[in-house]
Amino acid sequence: MFGLCRNPDCADNTVSLFHASLIWPLQLEPVLVAGVKSRHWESFEGSHETHPWRRIDDEFTDDPGNFRERHYREFVSFLPYVQRFLYGEGRSGQAHTQPGAGNSPMHVFRRKDISTLRLTLREGQASVELHIVHIDLYFFDDLDLIQLNVEVRASDLPLRTVRDILFRFGRAYPSGWEEGGDGLHNVHLAEWLDASGQVMARSDTEHREKYLGFVCQHRSPCISEHWASLLRPLVLAHSEEPGRLRYRLIEYHRMPVMAFLALNQPQSLTADDWIRIGLASTLHPDEPIPVNDPSAREFNQRYCQDRFWTDSTSGPNTRFICTGSALTLVGDASQPFLMDAERGVLAQFRHQYFLIFLIAHLHRAALLIFSDVLVGAVNALNIRNDASVRQFKRRIRANFETFLRFNHRYWFHELSERAHLQDTFRLCSNHLRNDALYEEVRDEIREMSQYLDSDSQRRQSNTVIRLTVITILGLIATVTTGYFGMNIIAFGEGSVLQRLLHGLLATTVFISLILFAISRSKRLSDFLEALSDERLSFSGKLRTFWKVFGDQKH
Predict the structure, then answer these.
(1) E strand intervals along 206-348
(2) Terminus-to-terminus CA distance in the chain, angstroms?
């Protein structure tokens, strides 16, 4: 399988165009306004004076003069119900008879103050500058979730450098430290630069004590400063930094990544080269390929989509590699259609395939959040505390309601009639285990719902039992007074004061008897059940009766 390279210089092959997008899902903590849960994106937009993020109107509702063919191709690639999710239903017609009706549940914010990302991959190496194409934040109605998208581009980079970037860049915090003090597997230094070349923020993974102290104190990892600065005014949940909108990490520190690589003669790459490119985000560039690992041994069958790969000079030579956490497209730079940013593969990568990757990770992140909310509700439950039980029920019912909305608004299996788009989405979802995770979360929510239903039924049953006991006692009194007549004692005679005192005394006695019966209704129910048991002796029935008045300890 691992043949020799047909091109001795393939290890140093130049990537004519490197285009990559990091998509980082994060969980948002609920925001309450006057005790009512509000939408995160509205709170975020309301504080726009204090941060550089601005909400953008997509190309489908903006000036028609800015609507390009690549946007049209993107739109028609998806099925109608996915179109309504991504783009809404337009500004005219019945969809907008009410404010907000027909709008897309996805809201995008963008910052334009950062123009360059400068990376020093290893200590002593020359830095690499990546042009910032977009930095966006995606908010979603009904979901406590955002997705950060950082889209970068560079030209004429060595393939070895590109693999190193894919392995080191998309990491939120170090998983350890090397002997020299650098964060393990992180870049030596990452810097955000503005248009004038001034450094706006830089990474701090070398500050080992900061990360150790944060985890020790909060039992939660701390993210690197260059990522924290990018997300502000959003702040980490456990951070002491003030901020209304706070986020939590959902998964591992390695961010999902998409990569577009335009190479000269990609057919000259060996099987080893393909594995290193496809697994670039997880396989260390300096380590040997784990030949016995299924991810390497079954690489082609597991991860590769070769519908547009002919391995010939005539082409097409475009290969898709999807591992779930990474989607990599490798193509022949000599083919004009590959590099066409309006109609070609590059345009499809930035639009159709980007949305497919974003939706797949939206599904996984949302399902993990639903599961996390359920775990938090169970952990906070104290069955001996009525307030805790009520809060638990409210949280479970609210989570169930949100899951229903997610199920009908965001959960798709079929996105497109275009076979390759649909196959890529299915491959990504399968590697992320979205269907299995969905079944797990649905079963968990169903179990919680069944618990709440059974608890409600139990309470209703107890209420019926108590009412039955009171009714039986009332029936005894009713039959007795009916037999003797209602006026056993002539309360109608005497002065007004006497009649008032009689009425007050009778009311007090009756209320006391009813309250006593209610307080002992469970024991009275046990007595009635024992009384109807023909197998129980008279003495046993009598003992059950005396328990109604005595102290009963279980």
Answers:
(1) 235-236, 246-249, 257-263, 304-305, 319-322, 326-332
(2) 71
Q: How far apart are CA 199 and CA 193, in angstroms?
A: 5
**Cα Rg of the chain, angstroms:** 34
Q: Where are the domains of the chain?
A: 346-484
Report the relative pairing of strands 14-28 and 31-33 from DSSP bridges: unpaired
Distance, CA of 443 to CA of 296 (rounded, Å): 34
Place of tokens 């949280």: 395
Q: Which two tokens stand for residue 98?
A: 């009410």
In 271-358 the beta strands, taken as DSSP E runs, fall at 304-305, 319-322, 326-332
Give residue-wise pLDDT tens across range 219-276. Answer: 899 999 999 999 999 999 988 888 889 999 998 889 999 999 999 889 889 999 999 9
Which has the closest alpha carbon to 161: 133, 122, 190?
122
pTM for the model stands at 0.81
Q: Residue with structure tokens 């779930």?
A: 324
- CA 251 remoteness from chain centre: 10
CB atoms within 10 A of CB 395: 18
Element (H, E) at 112: none
Tens of pLDDT, residues 106-157: 999 999 999 999 999 999 899 999 999 999 999 999 899 999 999 999 999 9
Q: Are 377 and 395 in contact (CB under 8 A)?
A: yes
* Burial (CB count <10 Å: 0-12, 13-18, 19+), residue 34: exposed
